[in-house]
Amino acid sequence: MPGFLGSYRHQLDPQGRVSLPAPFRKGRERESFVLLQTQPNALSLYPEEAWAGVQDELREMSRREPRFRPQVLRVTADAVEVTPDAQGRILIPERMRRAVALAGEALVVGAIHHVQIWNPETFESVTSPTDEEFDRLMETVFA
User: Fold this and answer.
1) Of 43, 79, 115, 129, which sits with the fewest C-beta atoms within 10 Å of its C-beta?
2) Crossing angle of the two packed helices 69-77 and 48-64, in degrees rounded to 10
3) pLDDT level of residue 53 (50, 70, 90 thresholds)
4) Is 19 left (phi over 0), alpha (psi -120 to 50) or beta?
C-alpha cells in the first residue's frame, strides 16, 4: 500500500467528524484506524497495518525500559479505534479536539505511514521555520 502523502483542509461537522481524503481511504474502505495524540499539537491516525508495528515497538520499549511504562500507558489510554463511515468521516472525540485546538477546520496531512490531523494555523507555525542542517540533509535525500 502506498504511503500517505499530501495535505487537505476539511471542515469539522457539528458532531466533530472530519472527512478523510479519498486518496487516504483508497483500499482501506472497511479498515479501522487508531486515533491518538502522540505529540502536543496534532493527532495521529494509524491504519491497522502501521498500528501493529507501533504496538510492537511500544511493547518492546516497555519491556526494555520499564521506567517508560507510565508514559506508554498515558499515550495508549486515550487512543480510540475509529472506522470511517459511508461518507469517509471519522469522529474525533471532543477531548482530542480540545487538546489540539481543532474547531471549524482541520488540516489532514499525510505523514508517510500514518495521517496527522492539525489545526491549520498551528501546522503553519510549527512547520514554517527553516533549519540549515535539515536543508542539507534533505539535499542528500533528494540528490
Assistant:
1) 129
2) 150
3) very high
4) beta
Q: Give me the helices (H) in 1-47, please.
A: 22-25
Query: Rounded to two decimals, what is the model's pTM?
Result: 0.88
pLDDT at residue 143, rounded to an integer: 67
Residue that has been written with the C-alpha cell 489510554 in this structure: 77
Distance CA 87, CA 66 (A): 42
Q: What residues pair up with 10 in beta bridges, in sequence order?
A: 106
Measured distance CA(35)–CA(52) in Å, rounded:
13
The mean pLDDT of 31-55, rounded to a whole number, is 94
Dihedral sign computed on CA atoms, order 92, 95, 97, 103: positive
